[in-house]
Fold these 4 entries.
Entry 1:
Amino acid sequence: MATRVLVLGAGFGGLELSTMLSQELGDDVDVTLIDKSDTFVFGFSKLDVMFGRTSAEAVRLPYAEIVKPGVRFLRETVTAIDPQARSATTDVATHEADALVIALGADYDYEATPGLLEAGNEFYSVAGAERLAGIVADFSGGRAVIGVCGAPFKCPPAPSEAALLLHDHLSGRGVREDCEISFVIPLGTPVPPSPETSAALEAAFAERGIEFVPNRRVSSLDGARGVVTLDDGSEMPYDLFLGVPRHCAPQVVRASGMTDGVYVPVDPATLQTRFPGVYAIGDVAQVGVPKAGVFAEGAARVVAERLIAEVRSAQTSAAYEGRGSCYIEFGAGRVGRVDVDFLSGPKPTGAFQAPSDELVAEKRLFGSSRRQRWFAPAP
Ligand SMILES: Cc1cc2nc3c(=O)[nH]c(=O)nc-3n(C[C@H](O)[C@H](O)[C@H](O)COP(=O)(O)OP(=O)(O)OC[C@H]3O[C@@H](n4cnc5c(N)ncnc54)[C@H](O)[C@@H]3O)c2cc1C
């Protein structure tokens, strides 16, 4: 009987893992890939939707297009996970496996920030970005605050990109001079492992008159008074709020007893949890790397290599290295890149590549190549 691998979550991690297992093992593996959604959306597409560069419909990639040997996609919602039994229950059935991979990502804890949804907006969900597209398009005067409500959060450069793209958007509409932009982040610099990247971003903020407020978290919003309260009790007036909500592991993961505090602890080299044959990859895991698609994908490759070796009764030295490259929109159609390494040295490092035309093309290829690899039928 083929080895049964149950993959919970078809995001960056789950898609890469299923693709690799299918490519290497074909019908010698029985992969069940489960997601509650019927489509995948790249994180960076949310910025494009918010600034009206595209529509939410255009960036949705339907899971129905996944046709890969050995892989079966099920649109179901996971309601319980039993790591000891390596099984998961959904709204439809209970699925058992020889290997269980938790790739359910990070959820948003909107209630943790009073007023966030009632008096502000968030751009980290597709629905939030879509709603903001209409609001941003009409904003033509006053103070816009881009605020982060807690760390860690997905893709640390994303709110910096939002600030620079908002500047472009308002300039393009001829209303920038009637608006102020402030950016609040609970980190000391925009991209802490890379001083060079942070310096380039801070210079870009200064050139555009964007107020940068580091080391502060947004703790609440008061719509009636039009103020944002920060974690030191200080207040900031606002007319438009673009928020990054506080993150947490999905409720079903927290209820499974696998988390230690907020996320799922794993062996950083193998991504195995404390339960044999149960792995956690991507944003749901606690590995010591940022929450970003490239890191989820890197973790997926290591778990795939280990499972492939197991099926073939072979040895593998595959170990997670915690490296990844993130593209950063600098505005005016320019894209830079930071190559970060979180686990190999005594402290994280990040090498910066200044914006260039080549990086614009590379970012485009980053999206299109994954779309092809994960969704196009195997050749
Ligand atoms: C604005 C923004 C910009 C970003 N830009 C970048 C970027 O440029 N580069 C980059 O590398 N990363 C970027 N990211 C981060 C990236 O999107 C995430 O880090 C990445 O998607 C994490 O992958 P994952 O596989 O861990 O989880 P996800 O991709 O979030 O996948 C988790 C999946 O689990 C499913 N799920 C959750 N709960 C259940 C349940 N109970 N039942 C069934 N299914 C469930 C979800 O529907 C989802 O499909 C960005 C994120 C945002 C918000």
Entry 2:
Amino acid sequence: MNRRDAALVVLVLIAALAGFALMLTQTGQGAQVEIAVNGEVYGIYDLDTDQTIEIGEKNICRIENGAAWMEWADCPDQLCVHHSKISRNNETVVCLPNRVTLTILGGEDEGQPDTIVSDASLENSFLPGYGETTSFLSTANK
Ligand SMILES: [Zn+2]
């Protein structure tokens, strides 16, 4: 193994770690999607597991990369299919004609600040002279 190979291995490792970290931040902590038909729970599925769920013969829900959406429906308005992907706590997709709802349980709360992005920007703007970003964070969280 020459030096270039070693550098390549390191790069691949870094990329893998970065991908893993990204995955962790995107999936949240054990979020699930609850599917209900006619107000009754049809099933609860982990957002961590990529899968396709047929809801009767009228709707198909897809879960991928920590988000859920209505992949297909036979309803005339198609509003549920065009709804954006959901991944945050209490977000819902509703198919009114078929009375099907997708609801996120236990995901990250909506409106919560993205701490990872703010951490990065804090370090860029406040690091010179201020090593302790934690003290700033505690005031920012008030
Ligand atoms: Zn629909």
Entry 3:
Amino acid sequence: MRYYIADLHFNHGNMNKNMDKRGFESAEAMNEYMIKQWNSKVKTGDEVVVLGDFCFGSGKVANKILARLRGKKYLIVGNHDRFLKDKEFEPEWFKWIEHYKELNDDNRKVILSHYPIFCYNGQYRKDVGDNPLVYMLYGHVHNTFDEYLLNDFIQRTRDYKRFERDKEYHNIPCNMINCFCQFSDYVPLSLDEWIALDKNRRRNMDIEDMIKTGQALDIDVSFGDGVMKVALPTEKYYRLKDAFAEQGLTIEEGLKRFVEWSVEKPVEFKAWVEECKKEGYFSEMELKAWT
Ligand SMILES: [Fe+2]
């Protein structure tokens, strides 16, 4: 069996405080947990492709960790894998070390890269039953705002239709899967397991997750007797803040105007919302907060 996993960041203590906020007491505690999770799944004969950012630290540290992980290991190089340049690192721990690879996985092709590839090789290939034949497995973005933007791209691409040789319109496949280790509780997963996990995760991916991970901001807007909560991705928050500032308003005051308008002139407000949707000014999600 072959498994995949990305961005383990062994020995990278900072992952507990910043970025992922993994919550382990120390880098050592995180290492021990991730080794346990890996070995709970991987048997000696299994293969594991690490999609980059395997370990932070010296060659010696990487050697020690690799000695404790079961299975045959393969590495797609990530931007944090500096141990590879350390003379003390023993590259034999990995069967191969590459920056990009295409492999066959149970009659499907997998495109492997640490960095997400938007238009990947074989993206349009499907079998006679319309099932995708190619998957792009990536890492790098962890569960950040970049992953949120990627998700937006994936959903939009899948919504488009393309006129094909059979003279019919078909949806554009976009089978990009973020194999980030936290999504699977640090357990390497097979392609089918990642497909299932990804489908479920993208379905449930909403602004609440973004707020939890600090990628979106929750704004309280006082209105009448109550308080309305508006959630905005950080990037959009700063854009709106600048736009309102030009009119001499804070973001809270600006959003309050929107709400007042929605109550005072509901018909015009609805028309404006529809216009925004059409023009793609705001996402469905943000408009939901205002309507
Ligand atoms: Fe990473």
Entry 4:
Amino acid sequence: MKCIKCSFEGDKYLIYVCDGCAVTQCKECGGFTASEEKCFALSKRKVILFCSKFREETGTIIDLMQRNRKLKQEIEKLKEIVTNFQENSKKHDEILKNVDKSNIEKKNFIEKLENQISELQ
Ligand SMILES: [Zn+2]
Ligand SMILES: [Zn+2]
């Protein structure tokens, strides 16, 4: 077996195929610890070994997933705020419309009164 990273050649006690990325590599290139190295040649191995690169990559993915979840929660909160704002501004618009209406009605009423007064004169 041969390490694809440094071309070091060795037997199954020295070279290991990563369980994550399936890359054949030596202890140094895979970043395996001494205790992990002892597991290399065990035929009925219960531990799963990942090289340092794979651990780094999956760590990044997990980190990204957590960040993504947080972002989604923040977006939901923002949506709520926007919805509340829209509802409030609708209510506000309606109040303004009603104020306009009543102003027009008052104006009309006053005009009518003025007309009647002028007719009386
Ligand atoms: Zn190597
Ligand atoms: Zn790997």
